Amino acid sequence: MVEEVKTYHAEVTRDGRFWLIRVREIDRSTQALRYKDVVTMANELIEIMDGVKEDEYDLHLEVHLPSSVKDHQARAEVLREEAQRKQAEAAAEHRAAVQELLALGVSQREAGEVLGMSFQRVSQLAKSS
């Protein structure tokens, strides 16, 4: 029979210069100066308070950030997705320009010179039609 592993939930917030770590299941807190130390500090707290070893439980972090930070992150994601779409559109337009020049009898090397692209890029675009 497989024994179920207990999961501890650590709520992490910024508190002045420190990261405050509150482990719900043991109703205790600790802190870390750097975010990279949050997991270590949470594990140490759990091990001291509950007497379990790190490989005997799972730790789930819930990082609570200010709403303004979440807003910036959400906006950045929207912009990143928009940039990806725009990049795909730009590639399609480059491809169309290359194909039109080649259809006019311009060589790939000349098309690259005219469009400010390398011969290799023109060749790639010509093959991706």
Describe the overall structure.
There is one protein chain. By secondary structure, the protein is α+β, with helices and mostly antiparallel strands. It has 2 domains: 6-64, TTHA1013/TTHA0281-like, CATH 3.30.2390; 85-127. The protein is 52% helix and 22% strand. α2 packs across α3 (108-115) and α3 (108-115) packs across α4 (119-127). The N and C termini lie far apart (58 Å). The model has no long low-confidence stretch (mean pLDDT 94).
Can I get a quick summary?
The protein has 4 helices and 4 strands, in the order βββαβααα. With 129 residues, it is of the alpha+beta class. This is HicB family toxin-antitoxin system.
